[in-house]
Specification:
The chain crosses the membrane at residues 30-63. By secondary structure, the chain is of the alpha+beta class. It has two helices and two strands, in the order H-H-E-E. The chain has a two-stranded antiparallel sheet with strand order 1-2.
Length: 95
């Protein structure tokens, strides 16, 4: 004699009737597509790629230089003479 157990109706759903997995974020999908397409775009436009990389490196070097200068001048009173207007005194402070 068969002795079965009592189970809920959800356990007897047919195969394939499971709910779909959570949907992915559109931003994640776009980032993934951009990552896949980036090498092809770089190969298609080599001059633009070199210009973009050069600009990125130049921006990084410039920002480091500006930050280094600001740290060096931090706390000291600086003067800036504007011809015909006068002299401006300023101080750079950091938190």
């Amino acid at each position: 004699m068969y002795q079965g157990s009592i189970t809920s109706a959800e356990a007897h759903r047919p195969i394939g009737s499971e709910s779909p997995p959570g949907s992915r974020s559109p931003l994640g999908t776009l980032a993934f597509l951009a990552l896949i397409l980036a090498p092809f775009v770089a190969l298609a436009y080599p001059v633009a790629t070199v210009a973009l990389l050069t600009g990125t490196v130049a921006l990084a070097v410039l920002s480091r230089s500006v930050l280094r200068t600001l740290r060096r001048r931090s706390g000291r009173v600086q003067t800036l003479t504007l011809p015909g207007l006068g002299t401006v005194e300023y101080r750079i402070t950091t938190n």
